């Protein structure tokens, strides 16, 4: 009964290599790694919705078997520095591994990561001369999500801590942008890029879910779901389930409207506002939309990316290269800064200035 309450994206998430349905070469490579005598630190990187976390979970299952599935949520409290301040973090742990998102600790990510690894590494060290079975039993694994969102200080501390406890534990890191991970940290891991699935692969996964749920999924609707997901498998599955709920039955019509998140409509509205009028008052309206998106926990880099995509669909092709340059500049500012609203609003203001100048130049040419 518990599985019935899960979202399809979690209910049908593969938990072993045998259940993975695409990237066969990568799956074979990971199998070989897990069967080797010594597995290195791993860095899974690639776009959102490609399957990085899923494959990290499959690695854990291959190493520890069913024990890796016996997970529980653990709330831990860490003392920050010499002060009496404490930071509470949420982890998911089994007897052999722990999963944690360091970016949730904010400015305290460095101290929390160090303490977490120190705790996990306090077990008996790995005997590198023993059989593979013995290594699996004594190996402790720490899975760090969104490593590219960690501060530079935290990444530097992670590198030093990895070296110190390399005999007692292994780190599996997950990131979207490998360029945001410091090179000294990358060099100590085996990088594994997980690319986006093809639209054909997405349709195949959706058809499999539909069959298991007893839902009739027409080919035209399946194709539209794959196309509108931008090859993001997680988004495609979520939109499929939302569409099924909105229709209210098991027989989906080919022309059923695909449900999208409210945040996507909000990003589209902000892009329309920015291209419709370029005034101080309009910027105030745009800022309000951006604040609402941030308040609903939409990641700032996702907001910027979606804004740029929508603007590129609206704006003239002639100005698109300059828009891309602006987005690259402010994406870097978002990474290095601590106040996302400042950089998102600065991007909006700069774009509106550039776009207003472009429109004036076009008007002069027509005259």
TrEMBL record:
Keywords: DNA replication. It comes from the Eukaryota. One of its GO terms (cellular component) is DNA replication factor C complex. InterPro entries: DNA_pol3_clamp-load_cplx_C, DNA_Rep/Repair_Clamp_Loader, P-loop_NTPase. GO terms for biological process: DNA repair; DNA-templated DNA replication. It holds the Pfam family DNA_pol3_delta2. One of its GO terms (molecular function) is DNA clamp loader activity. This is Uncharacterized protein.
């Amino acid at each position: 009964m518990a599985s019935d309450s899960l979202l399809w994206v979690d209910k049908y998430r593969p938990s072993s290599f045998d259940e993975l349905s695409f990237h066969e070469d990568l799956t074979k490579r990971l199998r070989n790694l897990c069967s080797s005598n010594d597995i290195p630190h791993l860095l899974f990187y690639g776009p959102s919705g490609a399957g990085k976390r899923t494959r990290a979970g499959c690695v854990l299952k291959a190493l520890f078997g069913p024990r890796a599935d016996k997970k529980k949520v653990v709330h831990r409290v860490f003392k920050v520095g010499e002060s009496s301040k404490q930071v509470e973090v949420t982890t998911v742990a089994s007897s052999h591994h722990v999963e944690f998102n360091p970016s949730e600790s904010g400015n305290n990510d460095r101290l929390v990561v160090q303490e977490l690894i120190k705790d996990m590494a306090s077990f008996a060290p790995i005997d590198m001369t023993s059989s593979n079975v013995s290594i699996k039993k004594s190996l402790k694994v720490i899975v760090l999500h969104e490593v590219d969102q960690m501060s530079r200080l935290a990444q530097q501390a992670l590198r030093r801590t990895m070296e110190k406890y390399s005999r007692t534990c292994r780190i599996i890191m997950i990131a979207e942008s490998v360029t945001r991970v410091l090179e000294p940290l990358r060099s100590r891991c085996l990088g594994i890029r997980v690319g986006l699935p093809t639209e054909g692969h997405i349709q195949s996964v959706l058809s499999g879910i539909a069959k298991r749920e007893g839902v009739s999924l027409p080919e035209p609707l399946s194709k539209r779901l794959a196309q509108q997901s931008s090859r993001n498998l997680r988004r495609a599955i979520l939109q499929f389930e939302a569409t099924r709920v909105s229709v209210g039955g098991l027989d989906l019509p080919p022309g059923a409207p695909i449900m999208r998140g409210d945040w996507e409509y909000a990003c589209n509205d902000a892009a329309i506002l920015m291209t419709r009028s370029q005034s101080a008052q309009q910027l105030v309206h745009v800022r309000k939309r951006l604040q609402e998106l941030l308040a609903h926990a939409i990641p700032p880099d996702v907001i910027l990316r979606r804004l740029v995509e929508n603007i590129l669909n609206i704006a003239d092709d002639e100005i698109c290269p300059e828009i891309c340059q602006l987005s690259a500049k402010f994406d870097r500012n978002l990474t290095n800064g601590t106040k996302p609203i400042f950089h998102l609003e600065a991007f909006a203001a700069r774009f509106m200035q550039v776009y207003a100048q472009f429109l004036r130049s076009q008007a002069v040419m027509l005259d």
